[in-house]
Design a protein that fits this description.
The complex is a heterodimer of chains A (364) and B (473). Chain A has 364 residues and is an alpha/beta fold. Chain A has helices at residues 9-31, 39-46, 52-55, 111-120, 145-155, 167-175, 179-199, 210-219, 239-249, and strands at 92-95, 105-108, 133-138, 160-164, 203-208, 229-233, 254-261, 265-269, 282-284, 290-296, 299-303, 309-317, 322-335, 345-351. In chain A, helix 4 (111-120) crosses helix 5 (145-155) and helix 7 crosses helix 8.
Chain lengths: 364, 473
């Protein structure tokens, strides 16, 4: 986020755009150079009738690479994604949830730390106090979240307690119609979280998912338990849940909705304005490391107008991972830049309507 | 646009999550419906004992009187609907254009709900088998010279409801005089009836806290089933199967109701042709008490042919036509895909569409932008044929020819059976069959309901448990 707040929004949006184009050139140079690029992208470049380093000079130039296909991430060899420039670094492998089939796999070296260090700067020191500890109650396992939340706690001078929830098991129970087993499992997870909250007074910050937050709040008042800030993410997040959380579940506790995924990183939400009480959730990607475009589902080359519904096209541009123009499983409304994030965002993110029947989401 | 809110203990709540319900023929939006998030449902239901206590502040007889008033109000009054009011005519029109049920049938179903409300004392008598209602207030009392006592099993009855026909709502209405609060999840295309019934009760003087109305997704429906001590669930086999082993959930799945002939009556089948047609086609064939099968030891092909001739007379008419007998499907796609399923099953040997020869065109037809399936009767030589046990949401039946002594073994579970026989042994077999939920041993359509009898499970037995009580009467 290299565009400082203040000044004319339009000028700053242009500045952000220029920064993005410069970042694209840097990333193209990195991923397509034999000295630093990954086997996958170097091999890909060999089949192109042009040299991406010459042809692609801006974000718009990424169209010459077509659309990233998620099938490329299903199965190995996973090291074909390792940029030569990062060889020798400790490697992490993260997986997506598997809601659209076989889980997608990606390598991660430093992205999750950068994302969460940047995100930390957006949190209030009053409600997410430095030096306080965190409870992370949600999916860890092969996902990025455990390490990411742990890093966030560490960056803020605390440590993170963890309780795992396995969403793939939850998914299986839903498909099998095992409703009571699902409730029992949720209770098992929540009980562990409650023990941590009761046993450790310094836990003031919480990461959890909407469903687990609801379940926790059935048992205790999080405010009385000493929680002052909640960072919450998951596919169930929408304006209604946001309002329900602020009005009924955790009134008086700072509630920060976020959207993250393994392929992108972490998107911040537009800060809630208690004056307007607009609960619409609008996410802004970690520009220029990631970019959302809202495109016409029938013509992904057309970016929709502001306020219009489009399918999310995600581009990830980091040294760890290059993913140009991936058509996500999500849709939403294209939203204008704001002072804090002078680039396009997305409102009311939800499952892409045409996938609704084939994907199980919102399991945790 | 008209907005239908949630009811949280009777108080309206406008959700930020909404769905838009469209007109069946024009596609134009009819109403925007607030959707409850599952956490909101769970949070409310954790407090529902309060609603039950408010209901308990009234006697059963007072609640019966309230029910009577509610019946009149439901059928006649302007009642609140979101920020607006809804007249009885509005209700009929709105229900018709979103469910596809002809207006005449909506009115008939409205009359059914009115009857149940106005005759609540008779209905409770049927459910409790004549229990002195004061015993429910006191918890115990003498009946027939014996001490009896009943304990309510839950604070609230959850109901996950269908869209097919407003008549089903008659089944949960006795919960109020039985002092049980309600958590209702309406069918996605039929939000109207449960909301209007709740408003009628409230206008009649029932504590508003008894009514929780939660249009929601499957997760919300699951919360209702998990968090009410007793519930009823409507749905197809895939929906209800996961809940079958839960005794707190009363299942209302496919009915597979049937007309069954004995050897003695199969020869005079033509005397019962009208009964068979009514059993299959009443209420647009949409109820689980509609017959989906006619099982006979003889003359199956002749019976199917005669029904087919009668069915050919039933034409698709506009929803506002007073003679309309068919209900429209939600979309052309829904009608065509069901018709394709039937055709693919007919491609298997052993079954024949007897109506095809009397139809001039396709089974699928369109009238004024609405899509219908024309009544269909299939003759099945083989009781194992998939169409022999099929049930669809339009007038559809299979005539299955099986020896009398094999019928009860092969016909499978049946919500209603009309048994046409004077054979004492066969009548006894029907009476003792565990496959048969409701039994008519008389020439009457399966669709005829006796309200002084338990129906589709006994709500009183679902909500109350008889127990031993010793003490001062």
């Amino acid at each position: 986020m290299n565009v400082a707040p203040g000044g004319n929004l339009e000028a700053r949006a242009q500045e952000a755009r220029a920064a993005l184009d410069a970042h694209v050139r840097e990333m193209i140079a990195w991923h397509f150079s034999p000295d630093t690029g990954s086997p996958f992208w170097l091999d890909y470049a060999r089949k192109l009738p042009f040299d991406p380093r010459e042809k692609i000079q801006s974000y718009d130039g990424l169209k010459h690479l077509g659309h990233f296909e998620d099938e490329w991430l299903r199965g190995g060899p996973v090291r074909r994604w390792l940029p030569k420039g990062l060889e020798g670094e400790p490697l992490y492998v993260f997986e997506t949830g598997g809601s659209t089939g076989l889980p997608k796999t990606r390598l991660n070296i430093q992205d999750f730390r950068i994302d969460y260090s940047q995100f930390s700067e957006t949190l209030s020191d009053e409600t997410f106090p430095k030096g306080s500890d965190w409870l992370m109650l949600g999916p860890s396992g092969p996902r990025r979240l455990r390490l990411a939340i742990e890093h966030l706690a560490q960056v803020r001078g605390g440590l993170a307690f963890h309780v795992d929830l396995d969403p793939r098991w939850v998914n299986k129970m839903i498909k099998a119609g095992k409703h009571q087993d699902l409730e029992d499992y949720k209770e098992h997870v929540v009980d562990q979280g409650l023990k941590i909250l009761r046993g450790h007074d310094n836990v003031k910050c919480l990461f959890t998912t909407p469903k687990l937050l609801e379940a926790l709040c059935e048992k205790i008042s999080l405010a009385k338990a000493g929680i002052t800030g909640i960072f919450c993410g998951g596919t169930e997040m929408n304006a209604q849940f946001h309002r329900f959380a602020r009005e009924e579940l955790v009134p008086g506790v700072d509630f920060v909705p976020t959207y993250g995924n393994t392929l992108m990183g972490l998107a911040c939400s537009k800060p809630f304005d208690p004056e307007t009480k607009d609960y619409t959730i609008t996410y802004y990607p970690p520009h220029p490391r990631a970019v959302f475009k809202l495109v016409d589902p029938d013509d992904p080359e057309r970016v929709v107008e502001y306020g219009e519904t489009g399918r999310v096209m995600l581009t990830t541009l980091t040294k760890d991972f290059f993913m140009p123009r991936f058509l996500e499983r999500d849709e939403g409304e294209r939203t204008e830049p704001i002072d804090l994030y002078p680039w396009d965002g997305v409102s009311n993110l939800r499952l892409f309507t045409r996938f609704e029947e084939s994907v199980v989401v919102g399991v945790y | 646009m008209l907005h239908i809110p949630l009811l949280r203990a009777g108080k309206t709540y406008r959700s930020l999550s909404t769905s838009v319900l469209g007109h069946l023929s024009t596609g134009e939006p009819v109403a925007e419906i607030s959707q409850a998030n599952s956490g909101l449902i769970a949070r409310d239901l954790a407090e529902i004992a309060r609603a039950r206590r408010e209901l308990e502040s009234l006697t059963t007889r007072e609640l019966v009187e309230i029910s009577k008033k509610a019946g009149t109000l439901f059928a006649e009054a302007d009642l609140p609907l979101g920020d607006s009011t809804q007249s009885a005519d509005d209700y009929v029109l709105q229900t018709s254009v979103t469910t596809g049920l002809p207006q005449s049938m909506v009115r008939a179903n409205m009359a059914k709900a009115r009857f149940v409300l106005e005759e609540m004392e008779t209905v409770l008598g049927g459910l409790t088998r004549g229990l002195d209602l004061d015993i429910l207030d006191q918890g115990f009392g003498e009946q027939g010279g014996r001490m009896v006592s009943y304990r309510r099993e839950t604070d609230a009855l959850g109901a996950v409801l269908p869209s097919n026909s407003p008549g089903v709502h008659s089944l949960w209405l006795p919960a109020i005089p039985l002092k049980t609060a309600l958590a209702l999840r309406p069918g996605s295309r039929e939000p109207w009836t449960p909301f209007r019934l709740a408003q009628a009760f409230i206008a009649a003087g029932c504590p508003e806290s008894a009514f929780h109305y939660y249009p929601s997704d499957h997760a919300g429906a699951g919360q209702i089933l998990l968090r009410t001590g007793r519930s009823m669930l409507y749905g197809d086999r895939a929906t209800v199967d996961p809940w079958r082993s839960d005794p707190a959930v009363q299942i209302h799945g496919p009915g597979w109701s049937k007309v069954v002939f004995g050897n003695d009556a199969a020869g005079t089948w033509s005397d019962h042709l009208e009964l068979m047609v009514a059993s299959v086609a009443d209420n647009g064939g949409r109820s689980c008490i509609n017959a989906s099968g006619v099982w006979t030891p003889a003359n199956g092909r002749a019976i199917a042919d005669a029904i087919a001739r009668e069915f050919a007379e039933i034409e698709a008419l506009p929803l506002d036509h007073p003679e309309a007998r068919l209900a429209a499907f939600p979309s052309r796609k829904a009608a065509e895909s069901l018709s394709s399923v039937i055709d693919s099953q007919l491609a298997r040997s052993g079954a024949e569409d007897m109506t095809a020869r009397y139809r001039s065109g396709s089974r699928v037809t369109e009238v004024e932008g609405c899509w219908f399936l024309l009544p269909t009767v299939v003759y099945c030589e083989d009781p194992e044929h998939p169409l022999a046990s099929a049930e669809y949401l339009f007038p559809f039946a299979s005539v299955v020819e099986v020896p009398q002594n094999e019928i009860l073994d092969k016909m499978g579970p049946s919500l209603v059976v009309t048994g046409l026989t004077e054979d004492a042994e066969f009548r006894r077999d029907l009476l003792t069959s565990t496959h048969v939920e409701r039994l008519n041993l008389a020439p009457m359509p399966t669709s005829k309901v006796a309200w002084d009898q338990p129906h589709e499970g006994n709500l009183f037995e679902h909500l109350y448990r008889q127990r031993s009580y010793q003490g001062v009467a």
